[in-house]
Amino acid sequence: MLEPTTSDDTAETPRSRGSGTQTVYTTLRQEILAMTLPPGSPLDEVRLSDRFGMSRTPIREALLRLASDGLVTTLPNRNTIVATIDFATLPTYFDALTLMYRVTTRTAAARKNPAIMATIRKHQNEFEAAVKAQDAYAMIEANREFHVAIAELGGNPYYTTFFARLLDEGRRILRLYYSTFDDRLPLQYVQEHEDMIAAIDSGDVERSDRLAIAHAEQIVRQIQEYIARDMNHAVSIGDL
C-alpha cells in the first residue's frame, strides 16, 4: 500500500517552521533596512522559497511579520513589495517624532527607576559600540531600544507604544540619516545621548526637554538637507 504523501508545508514541524520564519524575517529585515532591497522591490514567495530552501509557509509568516513592521506592503493583486518611503509625509512624521522625543524624555526625567536606567545605559553602550564599528544596522537597533527604554521610564504605556511605532516606521529614514555621514556617525551624537541620560538621571525636566528638541532638530535638519541636496536620488529611493 502506498503511504500518503505530504506537502512541504505540512511536513514541517512547528519548531522547524518557526526557526525558518525567524531566519527569513531577520535576513529580509536587514536587507530592507540596509536598502539592499530598495523600496518597491518585489518579494515573490516562490522565489524566496527557492532562495531560502524552505516551503512557502515560513516565507508567508515572515512577510506577515514584516508587514506588521511597516516594511512590506501587500498590493490589491496580492503581490508583496518592499514598502515605499513617502517623502511627502515626512514633515508630519517629523512633527510627531519631535513631540515624542520631548514628551518621553521629560516624563522620564520626572521619575526614578534604577533598573530601567541600567537598561538605558546598556542600550547606550550598544549604540556607542555600533557607532565606533560603523555598523548602521546595529546603530538603528540600539537607537530604537535606547529611546523606547526612556519612554518606558516615563511610565506612560501609550507614549511608549506610539513612540516605538514611530521609531519602527522611521528605521529607513534613520538609515538615510546615517548614510549622510557614510555611516561614520560623529561621536558628538553619542554624546547627545550621554547628555540626555545625565539630565534624566538628575531629574532635570527642562534640560531634558531642551536636549530632546536639539536631538530631534539635528536629525530632521540632516535628512532635509540630504533630500534637498540630492532630490533625484531621494526620488529614486522612494519610487515616487
UniProtKB/TrEMBL annotation:
Residues 18-85 form the HTH gntR-type domain. Transmembrane segments: none annotated. Pfam families: FCD, GntR. Residues 1-22 are annotated as: Disordered. InterPro entries: GntR_C (IPR011711), TF_FadR/GntR_C (IPR008920), Tscrpt_reg_HTH_GntR (IPR000524), WH-like_DNA-bd_sf (IPR036388), WH_DNA-bd_sf (IPR036390). Keywords: DNA-binding, Transcription, Transcription regulation. This is GntR family transcriptional regulator. It comes from Ciceribacter sichuanensis.
